[in-house]
Design brief:
mainly alpha; 3 strands; globular
């Protein structure tokens, strides 16, 4: 699942925080680093790279989230949970895998799933191979809402990318971002027991 949540500080604050991690003119281990004023070093500017990723993610969230919330009735991490379930076999995932994929704490995930259960979009199932475990599963209503929301989402994204990135550039960007995502969030597509998801 290629979702990439960035629930953090403002993008520029994040860039400034990264810059403050090392002393001016050097890194913590004594190596050289770029001055706080920015600028590439031999064409290599990782601070700008990270800043652009954060700013882009923040901008995409602002542009795309309102339409999704309108379609499905929930937003933020609740919508992310619905999408991850919708793109999983049988529309369900172990709660432990869902927590790892979303970076939510177990208690945070429990609260989010509780809210989705209350509005009839998700139900809990006992894991047949581990009575202590549990699945979160989309209800029929939840599946319909996710499908409707993703249809709108696809239209909105296509409109946003039109004239900005061609198909080849999009494919290349997906490959690069997946590599970066896997580095910073290696459990983003974790399914600990694929067979259990299909039983």
């Amino acid at each position: 699942m290629d979702l990439h949540p960035v629930d953090a500080m403002d993008a520029m604050d994040a860039v400034h925080a990264v810059r403050r991690m090392a002393p001016v003119g050097g890194t913590a281990d004594g190596g050289a680093c770029a001055p706080l004023g920015g600028g590439a070093r031999d064409g290599h500017d990782p601070i700008t790279l990270v800043g652009l990723v954060l700013e882009t993610a923040s901008g995409l969230r602002k542009v795309l989230t309102p339409g999704l919330e309108c379609e499905v009735g929930v937003g933020g991490q609740s919508f992310e949970i619905l999408v991850r379930l919708g793109r999983s076999p049988l529309g369900r995932l172990r709660m432990s895998d869902l927590a790892a994929q979303t970076t939510l704490t177990p208690s945070g995930l429990t609260r989010a799933v509780d809210r989705l259960v209350e509005v009839g979009l998700v139900e809990r199932e006992v894991c047949p191979s581990d009575r202590r475990g549990a699945f979160a599963r989309l209800t029929d209503l939840g599946l319909r809402r996710v499908r409707e929301a993703l249809c709108r989402h696809e239209r909105d994204v296509a409109h946003l990318l039109e004239g900005v990135l061609d198909d080849a550039e999009q494919a290349e960007l997906v490959s690069l971002l997946r590599r970066l995502r896997d580095q910073v969030h290696p459990h983003a597509s974790l399914v600990s027991d694929p067979e259990a998801a299909t039983r």
